[in-house]
Design brief:
single chain; 432 residues; mainly alpha
Length: 432
């Protein structure tokens, strides 16, 4: 099959509504993801009632984890659709599936009302959400890159990570507000559903925005996965380690609230401020990293903040473990998030840019989904186990440093891909 793909973006700036349309799905799925984790206890009681609260919570978390399992399948199906039919149809499909999952969560009757059908519907919703999330990252990131002028590729693509910060702040504020407004009884009865319904309000606007997007794929293409691995195996392996490093950093810092409450014995009010700081820093420094990568290249931006993160992670957690006060918690969260997310933006742009154009949707979707399933799914359970079986509360620093060393090795082996960087003379868009 022919493999002509439009890879040279227009000289004009991408309209803001197109950037918003691309990243709105990522923001919505992150919001859904975080809201579920906030209300896992209430969801467990509603759909997975058992003789003990712990067993109910574990079943609820098990349904939550099912989304990780379906991500790779969504990556293959929707990613292939993005390379064969177009980026726009893939983005519309993933957004519709996300909306269906969120509405199902909000509307499903409890186990007491419809019996076994209730947990089965919730499980189906989480599998659908994971399926959609697996395919959305590849199609939207590819779209952002391919529609951007060469001197703004980094900044525009970095919005993909930046919206995770927006979603983190929004979900945190919604969770805290709902928890404050409703008592335990009201929260259990329907309050947690309000958080999903608030997210669902964005669905019509997202569909209108995505329906108006241009298409960047000119001719349908098809690249078998086996051929992709054979021809680009080294690049895919490096990309998997880099995206895995991004996931480990994200989930280690996302564990900060639980770490502060369970390990440091800090007050919940102070601990719940940490994700707000994390979200703000994710937005600000992802965009800063993307913009900087347009000026000096992808590799310096993804490598040097990671080096700084490697150097400060242990002292930062040591300070936090000794002081155990809100100021230290927020300062450590801010510094680690700034370094991690700045590097993450440069890395995401570099990986997307380096992947072969005719299989970019599929390749990026599968790499990201597998990295999220492996590293995202295991990081926080591993942290909980390490903190339970070690002394000093420094397990997060050790895990973060180990992942950073592996990630740095992969980053240094990656080529420089920035078209306007002084390090990328002779650069040509990927076409194979």
């Amino acid at each position: 099959m022919s493999s002509e793909v439009c890879v040279e973006p227009a000289a004009a700036r991408v309209p803001a509504r197109h950037v918003a349309a691309a990243v709105i799905g990522n923001a919505l799925e992150c919001y859904d993801f975080i809201v579920y984790s906030y209300f896992a206890v209430q969801i467990g009681r509603a759909f997975f009632p058992t003789h003990t609260a712990f067993a109910s919570l574990m079943l609820s978390l098990g349904a939550f984890g099912a989304g990780f399992v379906s991500r790779p399948l969504g990556a293959v199906v929707i990613g292939r659709l993005g390379d064969r039919v177009g980026r726009k149809p893939a983005m519309l499909l993933s957004f519709l599936l996300m909306g269906a999952s969120m509405l199902t969560m909000a509307a499903t009757p409890t186990y007491a009302q419809i019996g076994l059908a209730a947990p089965l519907l919730v499980l189906a919703a989480r599998l659908t959400q994971g399926f959609a999330m697996g395919g959305d990252i590849g199609s939207t990131t590819t779209f952002l890159l391919e529609t951007s002028p060469l001197d703004r590729r980094g900044l525009n693509t970095a919005w993909q990570l930046g919206t995770q910060g927006v979603a983190t702040v929004a979900s945190g504020l919604v969770g805290l507000t709902i928890s404050h407004l409703f008592g335990a009884e009201g929260l259990q009865a329907w309050g947690w559903r309000a958080a999903f319904l608030l997210g669902a309000l964005i669905l019509p606007f997202g569909l209108v925005l995505r329906s108006d997007l241009p298409e960047t794929l000119e001719t349908a293409v098809e690249t078998p996965i086996r051929a992709l691995l054979t021809q680009h195996g080294r690049l895919i392996g490096l990309s998997f380690l880099i995206i895995g490093n991004i996931n480990v950093s994200y989930y280690v810092l996302g564990y900060m609230t639980t770490y502060a409450v369970t390990t440091l014995r800090m007050a919940p009010a102070a601990a719940f401020a940490a994700p707000i700081v994390f979200g703000v820093c994710t937005l600000a420094f992802s965009l800063a990293g993307g913009a900087l990568s347009d000026r000096i290249g992808r590799k310096p931006v993804m490598i040097w903040p990671r080096v700084a993160l490697l150097l400060v992670a242990y002292p930062a957690y040591l300070l936090l473990a000794r002081n155990r006060d809100p100021m230290s918690l927020l300062a450590v969260t801010a510094v680690l998030a700034a370094l991690s997310q700045m590097a993450g933006a440069g890395a995401l742009v570099a990986v997307t840019e380096a992947l072969p154009v005719k299989a970019r949707c599929l390749a990026l979707s599968v790499i990201y989904a597998l990295a999220a399933a492996v590293f995202g799914g295991l990081t926080q359970p591993a942290l909980a186990w390490l903190l339970h079986n070690t002394q000093g509360g420094l397990a997060p620093a050790n895990l973060l440093m180990a992942a950073t060393v592996i990630g740095l090795a992969a980053m240094m082996a990656m080529p420089e891909t920035a078209p306007l960087s002084s390090r990328s003379k002779g650069w040509r868009p990927q076409s194979a």
